[in-house]
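User: Some background: our group keeps a shared notebook of sequences we're curious about, and every so often someone picks one and asks for a predicted structure to add to the entry. Today it's my turn. The entry only has the sequence so far, pasted here. Could you supply the structure so I can complete it?
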Amino acid sequence: MTDAARKHQPRLTIRTRLTVIYGALFFAAGLLLLSGTYVVVQGSLDSYLDNRSRPEAIAQYEQQHADDAKAVDTGKVVDRIRDAQLDIRDATLDSLLTKAAFAFGVVGMFSIGFGWLAAGRALQPLQRITDTAKRVADRNLHERIALAGPRDEVKELADTFDAMLERLDQAFAGQQRFIANASHELRTPLAINRTVVEAAASGPNVTPELRQLCTVLLEVNVRHDKLIEGLLTLFRSENEIANRLPVDLANIADTAVKLSSCEPETTAAGIDIRLDTRPAVVIGDPILLERMTLNLVQNAVLHNTPGGGWVSVVTGPGPRLVVTNTGPTVPKHEILSLTEPFRRLDNDRISHIRGNGLGLSIVASIVRTHNGRIDIEPRDGGGLIVTVNLENHQENVKS
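Assistant: Of course. Here's the predicted structure to add to the notebook entry:
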């Protein structure tokens, strides 16, 4: 069976399966009880009739009517009595079977209903665990189940899950402190180096070779600063969004295009950036969404064809952003790895200033944080088509 066929199979919940099991056990026990009752009653009636055998009945009847001048055929009378008793026996058994089956069916329906309620109550702690796990999946590691009740298997599972969340929360908090401290410790020497190099380059007796060296050092400094900024952005995008506001991707795309059009790499290579905007309102972090859009546009510019290349930025309809660019041909097997950190395609960049390999990684992380989806596919003739869909947050705006 294929994965698609499995997805379209009807999904039976544990509650439904437990209800079916409870109902099946009740009907099996009821059927066994009804069969046993039927056999016992049938045996009792047969034993009663067998105790009234024909010779004894005839002798008793003849003794009671010995002086009766109009004596009748006692054998026929006893046969009729016995036939009447058999009819009463059969009617009694039929009535027992019919009424018991009706009562069994009615009680069975009630038992299924009570089974459904009992299964729901028994699974309620598991539903709490599931709800907490979903909230934790949205990077809310402060959630706890805190399940109360007897020390059973479900309570032990909930406590184990809470302990795991506690350790994860502490680990992420420590990581956040480490990133903040590391960024401060790294940016401080970079700022000092930049100041020293700029001072050296502006001296009165600077030779052309030294000035060229200072220029290279400043470019390296800028690259390192961008790398640190990219790592910090990647870290922030992997955490829970604290500031959720309505954001129009059209406005953000317009700003990103204006900034990218003014960059030296764009003007030097003659890249034409085309903008087609329609309203695309989502709920999210404005800073992260702006970084996502700017990274997509800058990535499309850097991975382009010098002289005659173009970039297309389209927003809408709906919460949708599509960035298309000309450029080198990208093999299909490379597509999935483009969103990995520090993954770069080294062919045919338009600029000698290389990226840090975090552009699409940051984009993918921001899209995941906003519960969206990113699709990357190669464009016919070279380049990429990157589609970002934030449909979940458009539903939140409508509601």
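Suggested note for the entry: The chain has eleven helices and seven strands. Residues 347-354, 393-399 have pLDDT under 50 and may be disordered.
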